[in-house]
Design a protein that fits this description.
A 5-stranded antiparallel beta sheet has the order 1-2-3-5-4, with helices on one face. A 3-stranded antiparallel beta sheet has the order 6-8-9, with helices on one face. It has a two-stranded antiparallel sheet with strand order 7-10. It is α+β, with helices and mostly antiparallel strands. The chain contains 10 helices and 10 strands. Helices cover about 45% and strands about 15% of the residues. The chain folds into 2 domains: about 90 residues, Phosphorylase Kinase, domain 1 (2-Layer Sandwich); about 200 residues, Alpha-Beta Complex (Aminoglycoside 3'-phosphotransferase, Chain: A, domain 2), CATH 3.90.1200. It is globular, with a radius of gyration of 19 Å. A hairpin with a 2-residue loop joins β2 and β3.
Length: about 300
């Protein structure tokens, strides 16, 4: 979605002024984000990723919580080292690693399931401060309030989205609370040739494993067979009908939440080169396809 980012003199000066560099630096853009900026900085000590972003209360994003999670993930050996932070800025060690695409995720289901399961169960021993709960159905309902208050062009569709959220929430099977990443796009997995790493913790918090599994499978374009394989790898057993239905419903919920994320972003974000309207419609298209498949198999009655 984003065009190649050009660094401005003001942004270069801001990065150059950070008090951590060893000698002269070279700055180049890292692409992929549609709500934050990331820059690769190379100095005498190697590579570093500078991540710039402010609080987005309309998206429930607080940078101090993101920083805490990134530091906890470093301690738990899931993420690269946090080298420096100040308000609006976080610098992490650059990993000489390959960023995953959809095909890489589909080709590494066992490895992906293992790191996600470990993250879910180990991170609660490392995070600190007030606990943040990420429940996707609350996010959808809160987005609806934000969209109404902001006069979104999509206001007339909100009652249908809220009814859909109720239906999909009712299909969830009870699972233990875990600490979720909650934004498992393929590009948030890095492979250094020996192991996988996770990055980007804006939305991380206590949640249900099903949202990460659904987001992962939906974002990477899993087939029904691949989704079943993911469930089996994560839970260590062949998934029963309740788990399969829960995943299919949450895949729809993940797409609904992403579409409404984009609707809110239409109102409040302006990332250069990003067409939020197009991103909204792409996610609504994918949601329609997923919802048709879900209802064809399970109907639309609430349990």
């Amino acid at each position: 979605m984003s065009e190649v980012r050009k660094i401005t003199a003001e942004r270069a000066a801001q990065i150059e002024a950070l008090p951590i560099w060893s000698g002269p630096i070279e700055i180049s853009p890292l692409m992929g984000g549609i709500s934050n900026e990331s820059w690769l900085v190379v100095d005498g000590a190697g590579g570093h990723v500078v991540r710039l972003g402010e609080d987005y209360p309309f998206h429930h994003v607080l940078r101090d919580r993101e920083l805490m999670t990134a530091q906890a993930a470093e301690k738990a050996s899931f993420a690269p080292a946090v080298e420096y932070a100040e308000p609006g800025v976080m610098v992490c060690r650059y990993l000489n690693a390959r960023t995953y695409a959809e095909a890489d995720v589909r080709a590494n289901i066992q490895r992906i399931a293992a790191i996600v399961r470990a993250f879910h169960h180990q991170m609660p021993h490392h995070v600190s401060g007030p606990g943040f709960m990420f429940w996707p159905f609350h996010v959808v309902r809160d987005y609806a309030r934000t969209l109404r208050q902001g006069g979104s062009r999509m206001v007339e569709h909100l009652p249908a989205y809220l009814e859909m959220a109720d239906e999909l929430e009712a299909a969830q099977t009870p699972l233990p609370i875990v600490f979720g990443h909650n934004d498992l796009l393929p590009a948030n997995f890095l492979d250094d040739g020996e192991r996988l790493w996770l990055i980007d913790f804006e939305y991380a918090g206590f949640s249900t494993a099903m949202f990460d599994l659904a987001g992962l499978s939906s974002n990477a374009g899993f087939s029904a067979e691949e989704s079943e394989a993911l469930l089996a790898a994560y839970f260590g057993r062949s998934p029963d009908e309740a788990l399969q239905r829960s995943l299919a419903a949450m895949q729809c919920a993940s797409l609904l939440r992403e579409a409404m994320w984009s609707m809110v972003s239409e109102l409040y974000l302006d990332a250069p080169g990003t067409d939020y309207v197009a991103y909204t419609h792409e996610n609504l298209r994918r949601l329609e396809t997923a919802l048709d498949a879900y209802r064809s198999r399970y109907g639309n009655a609430r349990r």
